[in-house]
Amino acid sequence: xxxxxxxxxxxxxxxxxxxxxxxxxxxxxxxxxxxxxxxxxxxxxxxxxxxxxxxxxxxxxxxxxxxxxxxxxxxxxxxxxxxxxxxxxxxxxxxxxxxxxxxxxxxxxxxxxxxxxxxxxxxxxxxxxxxxxxxxxxxxxxxxxxxxxxxxxxxxxxxxxxxxxxxxxxxxxxxxxxxxxx
Length: 182
Fold this sequence. Notes:
single chain, alpha+beta, 7-stranded antiparallel sheet, 3-stranded antiparallel sheet, globular, disordered N terminus
């Protein structure tokens, strides 16, 4: 199983947008992966050793979550109900490895993936139903009316997954567009 798929199956990320609207949120993340995003409330923070164990030596993982997901790395294959907001970041051993992971993840999103406009990073984003997450995670849709936005970004050797599960496309876009690397 590709490392990107393993990483994807361990998390939920939802968000969507076009252009970045600047730094509209607080700054989060460890020194190696600082980012800003407009979480609707203070996120829960977590690092999960089993995820790190699946990545190459020298990797690090951190996650931030608001909403229905109780942990960034879900132990059960159930997508949380909206609204849920997640940012997961993975520090990988090389820029080349991170670029390969982002390319694999982009292919999993398929035709829905469009270039994301970020400052200092590259990425893709998609918005649609919860079925977008099925391509990236082991989660199964739980709410047919939910909107899912996904932003996948890379800055150097760090990969960011930003996910928003919301009731409207505009809410998902708003969250995604608030994201930027710091």
